[in-house]
Amino acid sequence: MRSSAAPMAPRSPSHRQGFRSAFPAKLNSHEGDVTSLRPIGYNETIMASSFNLNAYGAMFRVRAAYSFEVGGLLVRMYAFMRTIGTVSMLTLSGYSYFMAGLVASVVAFALFLISPRVSKKIDERGQGAIVVPATCIALSGCAILLVTVLLKLPIALCFVGAVLMGFLPTPQALTRARWVYLVKSGRLGDGAPELKTVFSYEGVMDDIVFMVSPALSIALASGIHPIAGMGCGFICCVVGTLLLASSKDTEPVPGWEKKLANQEGAASADCSEGAAPAESGAAAEGLRNGSAPAAGSGIACDVSADAVDDARASKKKRSRSLFLTNPVVRTLFFLSLLMGCFFGIFDTATVSFAQIELNDPVFASLILAIESLVSTIVGFVFGMILFTARQSKKMLAFSIVIGLGYGSMIFVSSSVSLLVVIFVAAGTYAPFVITLNETAERAVPEANITEALTWVTSGSICGLAFGPTLAGVIIDTWGSFACFGTGAFVALAIPVLAILTYPMMKKQVG
């Protein structure tokens, strides 16, 4: 069923020409040449930032995006409930923190192995062909966990379910890929929002869900039933996936970037020798419809051997993972991994502190809710700031900020000090995550955006799963306060990694 949103503005030739002139390097770049992805006119100097109160207006006017944005938000709720929800569900059901963390670690390992490959298939075949089947597999794994805990079945079944949960497509990547497609393909006409604003908005949504979902999961599990948190996430995922699937008009057409950037080359590959030239209007119409010209359509062919070799080399490179071929994506993955790890440690330590030290599990929900509120406000304001600094320097600066902010966890010694740390540190999360995703978008061609963003998100999800495992061992051995200290050292590793990789970042993304 298609979305009932109003139809999007048709693309005009003038807008398409403006789009080409604005991003010529990116459209015509080879996949391996990351530095050529910068738009013409990119300023290498750092200038003062400006503040735009109407930055989000263009986004909110895109009614066709409402359905997939709400759907993506709901699926994200499940994705961010998944780790702490698993830990809370198992520990409140009588299992040890170590066992709960071990199950969460299996989820992380499955995500690391499976989720990027699912995203790669989505880039190749389209969201409509992959998202629903993959989500059904992931939800079957979640159902196994819920039934196992509810019926007190052998814990080994939880590990089977944990593996299947790794098939869930990354919702953040799905929605961002749709925005990139709508904006850069010209589907939105002259009123298209800036991608900087889009990624800021998406970052705010990530921030809200990232902070609210664990708190909601803990509150439901501790206040109603151990499976209530994960059960809520399960329902959110089902509804969100249905909304995403129904919004077919906004799905990226597989290979749209290549068709737009290499229209003549793509047409030549489908032609027979000696065919007559096609009318430019017919080619443009085919491009507007998201399809390449048909074989025998009359477009002249003159493909050199070098062009064929380049195409084969490009195809071979696309078959390899971005994690292996792109150093920026690899670095962003590890930065995100560290972020997720210290958040996983922090969440688990907070739950343990509330349950063991204060004998009040609801206090953990209060702490995470405060963190969510502060971070959301900062993230929304950050989205209206128009930076003109180099992307590499922004990445370095906000890595240092978040490292120092959450590095202050080492000073937690009471409920009061925990509240102080939260107020100070929570505001550093949104700028870091927004900049992380902006850097990923800049580092790869649009055709690979889903996979690139999935690697970034997989890093945080893996960290969120491995963090509780480490936290469980520390809590069982030394207690909650030692766990906060460990999280602080993990957080401080972020600026260390950012500093070490800054020369590479500067070369690759500017």
TrEMBL record:
Source organism superkingdom: Bacteria
Keyword Phosphoprotein set for record: no
InterPro entries: MFS, MFS_trans_sf
Keywords: Membrane, Transmembrane, Transmembrane helix
TM region positions: 95-114, 126-147, 153-174, 322-346, 366-388, 395-412, 418-440, 452-475, 481-502
A molecular-function term among this protein's GO annotations: transmembrane transporter activity
Keyword Transmembrane helix (UniProt): yes
Name of the protein this chain belongs to: MFS transporter
Lineage: Bacteria, Bacillati, Actinomycetota, Coriobacteriia, Eggerthellales
